[in-house]
Design brief:
Blueprint lengths: L1 H20 L1 H11 L16 H15 L1 H7 L1 H9 L2 H31 L3 H11 L7 H23 L2 H17 L24 H23 L10
Length: about 240
């Protein structure tokens, strides 16, 4: 694990140099990774953007299973002795945050590598597929939505079961692909839908606000539901 972390940081350092050199192209390359799909219309054939869903699901899968499994094993013993639910939840939340952040870091490094392949290529892609300029805030939106969806899956996996968390995340992402609605956060992470989500004010402001609300609701659910769990009965 330590070796992997060091390697990831080394690769991130290389990617950071590319990002600093070509910041204007970096957000476009992130949009290429999270290309997604165009909003479906009556005249078009809807297809599920599998690559986009896979990218969004990787952090969800990373944070959904270990905390729930730990709760059934060593975590349950620790809680029975100490009774400190907030500390246990906080420790698992820190672990989940680190895992999701590591995956997002890999995505950003991949985008930085793409940006380093050449400005002309990136500009050609932009002219071909993006209906509106891709702003640097798109990168923030992607990271925020991944954090929010992962937090929701984390809470569902602990309060109900990991399978419920993963299935709920898949359904939510598929709905985001099918419906171009602002409360379906996946719409804020598709390069194909940059500037197409109709919102009453700044797109990034609404996205960050909704993500913060979802993360807060997930934390509240954990703090309310988990202390009521029968740790002896579930073993």
């Amino acid at each position: 694990m330590a070796g992997g972390a060091i390697a990831a940081l080394a690769v991130a350092a290389v990617g950071a140099t590319q990002l600093a050199a070509q910041a204007s192209d970096f957000s476009e390359c992130v949009a290429l990774l999270f290309y997604g799909s165009e909003p479906p219309t009556p005249e078009s054939i809807f297809f599920i953007p599998l690559t986009w869903i896979a990218l969004m699901l990787c952090p969800v899968l990373a944070v959904s299973f270990y905390p729930a499994l730990d709760l059934q094993r060593q975590g349950a013993q620790c809680l029975l002795r100490t009774g400190s639910w907030p500390r246990w939840i906080a420790s698992k939340a820190v672990w989940a945050t680190a895992m999701a952040a590591a995956i997002v870091l890999v995505y950003l490094v991949a985008a930085a590598v793409i940006a380093g392949q050449g400005v002309d290529t990136v500009d050609d892609f932009e002219n071909m597929i993006f209906d509106a300029p891709v702003r640097p805030s798109f990168v923030v939106q992607v990271a925020a939505v991944i954090a929010a969806v992962s937090a929701a899956s984390f809470a569902l996996s602990l309060c109900l079961s990991p399978i419920v968390g993963v299935i709920a995340s898949i359904v939510y992402l598929v709905c985001s692909a099918y419906l171009c609605l602002p409360w379906l956060l996946g719409n804020f992470t598709m390069g194909q839908r940059v500037g197409l989500v109709e919102v009453p004010f700044s797109e990034v402001t609404l996205c960050l606000g909704l993500c913060a609300a979802l993360i807060a609701a997930s934390a509240a659910a954990c703090l309310i539901v988990l202390p009521r769990k029968d740790l002896l009965g579930q073993r």
